[in-house]
Specification:
Layout lengths: L1 H10 L7 H16 L11 H6 L34 H14 L4 H28 L14 H12 L5 H5 L4 H19 L13 H17 L6 H13 L4 H9 L15 H23 L19 H20 L24 H20 L3 H15 L24 H19 L3 H25 L3 H8 L7 H13 L3 H14 L4 H13 L3 H14 L4 H13 L3 H14 L4 H13 L3 H14 L4 H13 L3 H14 L4 H13 L3 H14 L4 H14 L2 H14 L6 H20 L1
């Protein structure tokens, strides 16, 4: 056995390095691949998981992390995705607190460091997978295949498919999961340090520690629990040296040697019972916390899982597996999202893409046969463990156990890629035996490492901003409506409405039921006063999805602009019915009531908006202005002061309250607020104009003249300002004449 392992290492065409230098190189290369993402923005899913997640903020009780999903929604809610990752969210919260807010650099740096640590740990894992558990007389494990483990860890560190996990902050769930997954596996291996010593076969304590670390991995991301399956495979093929072909023959011929089979006499069943019991307990607790109900997904998230025909469903699942395999083999076509038509369904056996399935299973069948039937126990063990690492962590994403909410997700093959790197390394060793010129193989290996490193650098740069990320997906998934939608949204946020309209229209063309694209396009058309088409789009959106509250509100705004007030009111109340806490909708409802001179209803609506969202500046402003316009100066003053206590730096509130105080002849207080508002926003003509009016009333004519002139300079056609300025000049002339007399 040792001879075979030494032959494997001899066939790897790279220099032998000490453990320290091997780990240093792996860590350095992992850093080089992704270091340019450290100053990137929050992109894509980061918005929901971090920026909009109240669980990160210090005022949210820590206990909420244990009853909320990854996105900050209660697990018991019908809209929860049931992704339970409290430990990952806890690290986000620590980042937020240490940085003093939403500063992405700290979040990115942690992700890069985690990938470096995982890549270095992979060296220890691969040394066990390739070399087994062999210890010297001092109880220290001997690495029988240092070159093979170094090459496999190197390939893992620089694999471009990892970019989403490292450069996308939400990928930390996969990084943390991988870290504790590997620690759990190494802990399980640690249980056999005393193996072969008299009186002790394995350590129960380390077995339980491994199960506990598996639970921690699952609290970072769901697939962490699969480490228990990998531990079982490792136990069977490394510790018990299981030969399935030989076992089958013994069962077939009722061989008496079956009674003394090595895997039955070394506590294998006891260890499996420990892990199975621990895993079942963990999954039960997880199921209870989740609310015992699976998450709800739609056909646009995972169309194959909604196919009525079971064979068609199975064919498409297998096609997805082949695409995941292709991403590992050739990670050049990478995309942040593979849903919404990016991969059209295979609907018949005449589809040429069936070839991909055949190729995948041809390769897998060959590897499985060699793993089970080879006479070489070393080959059997490496192939079994490589296939185990490739497939077992992938099972939660395979649709076999439950429906998942995606077609392909590069992040879910972070751990399975370790199995691919192991198999590729073993393949290199076999190929090296067949080729006389070892330098050719060495050049090929260096070429793969260099190419992958370069691809990582390019791809991680694309993840630095949403604009680059979304545009990079267009050539990869031109049929993906979500890609066009995100490009359009990014352009709209930057004010390029014309270009955004083009992408929104393309998203709707690709997916005629894409209600979010309809809503956003309707919003832009509303702002451009193209009200007829805007109404048609928004009406279609709420027809397709009747509980789409935002579309109902926007439809109400359009109907209000078209002077169809009764329909607008009905739309607003429908939006509120579907979203009870909807401050923006109450604000717009208040505007409708104000237009209809239903002042009390308007005040109530705006008050509701401020209760639901105390920082709703527009609602506060409208409250103050309406109370001011209706002569309720005392109430307007009270509301204004209440608003400023909540939003002390809001210059628009200062301005509104200053106007009220001026009318109440509280000139000094009014002046202070006007000056604060001007200091905060010095180029607003109305601020200077109204302060000039205050000084005019107060009798401070020189100051009034100064601010009238500033106001007219900023806005020469400001209504009323020029007339007031003319009145002031006549008054100054009269004062001057009296002074001369």
């Amino acid at each position: 056995m040792a001879q075979s392992e030494n032959n494997l290492d001899h066939d790897i065409p790279i220099l032998h390095l000490s453990s320290f230098w091997a780990k240093s190189i792996i860590g350095l290369l992992a850093l080089v691949c992704f270091t340019n993402s450290f100053d990137g923005d929050f992109v894509f899913d980061d918005s929901e998981a971090i920026l909009n997640n109240k669980d990160l903020r210090a005022e949210t009780p820590l206990g909420d992390l244990w009853i909320h999903d990854f996105w900050g929604t209660k697990l018991s809610s019908n809209v929860s995705h049931k992704s339970y990752r409290p430990l990952t969210v806890l690290t986000f919260r620590i980042n937020y607190i240490l940085a003093g807010g939403y500063h992405p650099v700290g979040f990115h740096v942690v992700n890069i460091i985690l990938h470096c640590i995982v890549s270095v740990l992979m060296l220890d894992v691969f040394s066990i997978l390739f070399g087994g558990l062999t210890y010297n007389s001092k109880g220290r494990r001997v690495d029988l295949a240092p070159k093979a483990s170094f090459l496999a860890a190197l390939l893992f560190a620089v694999h471009p498919v990892h970019t989403e996990c490292v450069a996308g902050i939400v990928g930390r769930a996969d990084l943390l999961c991988a870290l504790f997954f590997l620690l759990s596996f190494l802990g399980y291996c640690k249980a056999f340090i005393e193996y072969d010593k008299e009186g002790k076969q394995f350590s129960i304590l380390w077995i339980l520690t491994s199960v506990l670390l598996g639970a921690v991995a699952m609290l970072c991301k769901e697939q962490g629990i699969t480490v228990l399956g990998l531990n079982a495979v490792f136990d069977a093929f490394v510790i018990c040296k299981l030969n399935l072909l030989r076992l089958f023959q013994m069962l077939l011929y009722k061989d008496k040697a079956l009674e003394s089979a090595v895997f039955l006499n070394k506590g294998f069943l006891l260890r499996i019972i420990f892990m199975a019991s621990g895993g079942a307990a963990i999954l039960y607790v997880r199921w209870r916390i989740m609310g015992t109900g699976p998450p709800a997904f739609t056909d646009v998230d995972n169309p194959a899982s909604f196919a009525d025909n079971i064979p068609i469903r199975a064919i498409n699942y297998n096609y997805y597996y082949s695409l995941n395999a292709w991403l590992l083999l050739c990670p050049w076509w990478l995309c942040f999202d593979w849903s919404m038509g990016c991969i059209p369904l295979i609907k018949s056996l005449s589809d040429w893409r069936i070839i991909a399935l055949a190729a995948l299973w041809f390769c897998l069948s060959g590897l499985i046969c060699q793993a089970l039937c080879s006479e070489d126990c070393h080959k059997r063990r490496i192939l079994s463990l490589g296939l185990g690492f490739l497939t077992i962590p992938f099972l939660p994403a395979s649709n076999l156990l439950f429906r998942v909410g995606f077609v392909i997700a590069e992040r879910v093959i972070y751990l399975p890629s370790a199995g691919y790197c192991m198999l590729l390394t073993y393949g290199c060793s076999i190929l090296s035996r067949q080729v006389k010129n070892k330098k050719l193989i060495a050049a090929a290996v260096l070429g793969i490492v260099f190419t992958n490193t370069l691809r990582c650098i390019i791809r991680s740069n694309q993840w630095r901003s949403e604009e680059q990320l979304f545009k990079s997906a267009l050539p990869v998934c031109p049929l993906n409506a979500k890609v066009h939608y995100n490009v359009g949204k990014n352009l709209a946020d930057k004010g390029n409405q014309t270009a955004a309209i083009k992408y929104y229209r393309e998203a709707i063309r690709l997916n005629p039921k894409y209600v979010h694209a309809m809503n956003n396009l309707g919003n832009i058309l509303k702002e451009r006063n193209e009200l007829q088409e805007a109404e048609e789009l928004l009406a279609l959106a709420v027809q397709i999805q009747p509980d789409f509250a935002a579309a109902w509100m926007n439809l109400g705004i359009v109907q209000n602009s078209l002077k169809r007030f009764a329909e607008a009111e009905k739309s607003y109340w429908t939006a509120i019915k579907h979203r009870k806490k909807y401050p923006d909708c109450y604000y717009n409802l208040g505007r409708l009531y104000a237009d209809l001179n239903r002042h009390l209803d308007a005040l109530n609506a705006w008050r509701n908006a401020t209760v639901l969202k105390p920082e709703h500046s527009l609602a506060w402003n409208n409250l103050i202005i309406l109370l001011d316009n209706t002569g309720n100066l005392a109430q307007a003053e009270a509301v204004g002061k209440e608003a400023l206590e909540l939003l002390p730096n809001d210059h628009s509130l200062m301005f509104s309250l200053a106007n009220v105080l001026g009318k109440s002849q509280k000139y000094k207080e009014s002046e202070v607020l006007f000056l604060k508002a001007i200091k905060a926003n010095p180029n607003t003509a109305s601020y200077h104009g109204n302060l000039a009016v205050l000084y005019h009333r107060w009798g401070n004519l020189d100051s009034a003249k100064k601010h009238y002139e500033i106001s007219l300079k900023l806005d020469p056609v400001a209504p009323g300002t020029r007339e007031n300025y003319s009145l002031l000049k006549r008054k100054l002339e009269q004062v001057h004449k009296k002074g001369s007399a």
